[in-house]
């Protein structure tokens, strides 16, 4: 985050004299409280300052790294998920490979009618069949996929941070974003895709965000 000159001045004042009211900061800078309001709001939202009612502003002392972490924990999978590419269980390994090329994805979700998740098939799952002696047109993806209940999933309400941690922990490239299909919670509907590319996009977005 790049601070404006005025925001930097505000931080210096609060660091030296906080707790201090908005009025007092404005006085020191020879500005009105109204002129200062947007800067104070930005500095508070970004975590540099803390505002306490009837007391004033404190320096929150957050380092850039902390602010980055806070941002990641505020971002929800729901807002960043990609469109899932689903196939049926009886799709051949050959057709799954063609779908991967056409859709430009590294994993496909295997679903029943109604969107119920039954499996995940990745590049390596398909390569394994392809380098074996089987005919890829004859083998259904259901024989190559990782199946439920062994699938690692995320929900729209999970944070981008938690979802990214799951990909690292389980050493996978993608997770289906799901919601329960019924009360049991065991049957899941696929509503999106969270991948390492999603994380790269979020990373670039945070890097571009220079005002706040
Ligand atoms: P790649 O095969 O391109 O390395 P992954 O690392 O995602 O892709 O897949 C590695 C293995 O993990 C594959 O056998 C795949 O079926 C399985 N897998 C992929 N995604 C998941 C997931 N969300 N939950 C459980 N297993 C998965």
From TrEMBL:
Residues 76-136, 145-212 form the CBS domain. GO terms for molecular function: DNA-binding transcription factor activity. SUPFAM superfamilies: CBS-domain pair, Winged helix' DNA-binding domain. The keyword Transcription applies. This is Transcriptional regulator. InterPro entries: CBS_dom, CBS_dom_sf, DeoR_HTH, Diverse_CBS-Domain, HTH_11, UCP026546_HTH-CBS, WH-like_DNA-bd_sf, WH_DNA-bd_sf. Keywords: CBS domain, Transcription, Transcription regulation. It holds the Pfam family CBS. The keyword Transcription regulation applies. Residues 3-64 form the HTH deoR-type domain. Coiled coil: none annotated. It comes from Tumebacillus flagellatus. SMART domains: CBS.
